[in-house]
Amino acid sequence: MPSAESAGPGPNAPPSELDTELPRFRPTGEELVHRGWAITVHSATFVDPAGVAFERDVVRHPGAVAVVAITDRRSVVLVHQYRPAVDQWVLEVPAGTCDVPGEPTERTAHRELAEEAGYAAGNLTLLTRCLITPGFCDEISWVYLATDLVAVPVDRQGIEEEYLRVVEIPLARFDALVDDGTVVDATTILGVGLARRRLASGR
């Protein structure tokens, strides 16, 4: 199984050939403004390449996993869940915060898939890791492909998950749901696209 480190560069990755000539910004400090159950908000200061100081609001996040689970019937397992931040029900792949210190992301992915969707994966493959909203937040999401699914009991956590509904959508219908605005979650759109590419390649 690929490790998280094999999925590509993160925010602390060494310079690549694409950025060796880029102007350099320098962080100079940050002050904690708010601490929540999963995130912290900081007032961070930087110096630009010309030596000018500036300030930005930065959200620190422990990271998350997302699981594109594909059934033997070539359907993708989605969850329909109320998201308070946008005050709407969002159709998305099972996902969760990396809120257990030291837990490998593979284990978090297995746990979230079982808890939310009621499936265990015989095979779990890392598709990518991506920055979610790098304009203000350092959250990285590890996106996995899950296949060879077996039904297991759900163990939903939190108020929103109590009302969550599992929906299985044929892969052939997925693009239409994106086109008509039914699916708007970015990680879901990215993950399903990468999963279809991986499945088509036979890897």
Distance from N terminus to C terminus (CA atoms, Å) equals: 12 Å
Specify the CATH class of the largest domain.
Answer: Alpha Beta
- Please give the radius of gyration in angstroms: 19 Å
Multimer state: single chain
**Biggest sheet architecture:** 7 strands, mixed
How many structural domains does the protein architecture include?
2
Helix content class: 10-25%
Based on secondary structure, the structural category is alpha+beta
Kindly state the mean pLDDT as a whole number?
91
**H/E element order:** EEEEEEEHEEHEHH
> What is the strand content?
35-45%
Tell me, briefly, the overall form: globular
CATH architectural grouping of the largest domain:
Alpha-Beta Complex
Which blocks of ≥5 consecutive residues have pLDDT under 50?
1-11
Reported by name, the CATH topology of the largest domain is: Nucleoside Triphosphate Pyrophosphohydrolase
